[in-house]
Amino acid sequence: MSSFSGAIQRPLVAAAAVAVASFSTDLSDKFPFHGSSSRDCSTSNLAHSPPCSSMHEPDLSWVSHISDSKLANLSFVTQIRVPVPNVHFRVPSLGQNCGSNLYHSSIASSPLLQNLYQSADLPRVPRPAAYSHGVSNSTSEVMYQWHLPDLKALGDSNCSFTKSRTVVVLLGWLGARQKHLKKYAEWYTSKGFHVITFTFPMGEILSYQPGGKAEQSIHLLVDHLAEWLEGENEKNLVFHTFSNTGWLTYGVILEHLENQDPSIIKRIKGCIVDSAPVAYPDPQVWASGFSAAFLKKNSVATKGRVFSDESGIKVSIGSDETLGLKPAATEAALLLLLKKFFEVILYLPSVNRRLSDVLSMLSSKQPNCPQLYMYSSADRVIPANSVESFVEAQRRAGHDVRACNFVSSPHVDHFRNDPKLYTSQLSQFLDDCVLNHCKSH
Prior knowledge:
Keywords: Membrane, Nucleus, Transmembrane, Transmembrane helix. By secondary structure, the protein is an alpha/beta fold. About 40% of the residues lie in helices and about 10% in strands.
């Protein structure tokens, strides 16, 4: 493996160089698309609801040798903000004083609410030394955070008890940080739900090994969830995943739950999938995901399609090429390098075998709970037809499935582009699939 690593390290370093060089292009990050576009949202096997029409890329340990300190020696890096990660991070200590790590610390510190929120306390679990270090930069990043529900949302509903014993687990996309999931967490907590936001530091993705540090981080989260659920049958889980990274993370969680305590899987009441999946190892998809993570707002993957108002309906006109939405030369070079890279990596025996196991779990062993897929025809990372094919396969397997095509919004950007439709889809899903029993009383 050591002889093989040198041959692969060079193209990835070259890819990183192309990534940072492309930051010199001044691209706008303003998107004028809002909720007036035609949407396609559907339900299946949920007759009581009205019809309406990432990646966890397995790399190798040698990649961890690529550090920001080394790239900083390159002359052009001093003028560019480079998303090069460090691999060290800390895990928050969640226990009786967990409020100090939360966005809602003022709520958590109220003595009046200690009994109401007691179910949110996680037992103290010894932290492995490898996970106890902070990120070596000015912004401290944690692996996951717990967010307590808004008090007002728990005081005026027959479903307050159910909500206070339901945790929504948000699994972030490739390159996502805690701050990126904050708006999603705030929406759920405003509805009365507990929320956990889980993200991987980029270093953990870049240094991925089957069964290694990244999966150990997931197992630690699962252990905390299992201890929170223990002893109270009324406590339940909802998962909300983003891109293929979040979706594959969900698959690893399901695997771990199946091995640790299969009964916990029955406590999963719903799964929401945003901008995923591609349920097979496609080098082009993985290359697009990494390119978007490296370039962020400078990537063409973050741009929605052009729409034209005709007869009061906004419709897509032309292809990416005719609309002038082709990637810049540097991004095109980066995509080519990454595609060649993943054509090798994804088919290494150990990586391919691990990936196949997770994809098999997600394709054929999903929990018996409703699923909601939110995607877009304008997504340049996850093709819409891949999502639609997976949705149909899940329906044929007998699952309750909803799907909503946002048509014009870019990858993992549906909430920002059309918050009204996005939140209405979430609300209807939670009402029908999570809160249905309490609302019927």
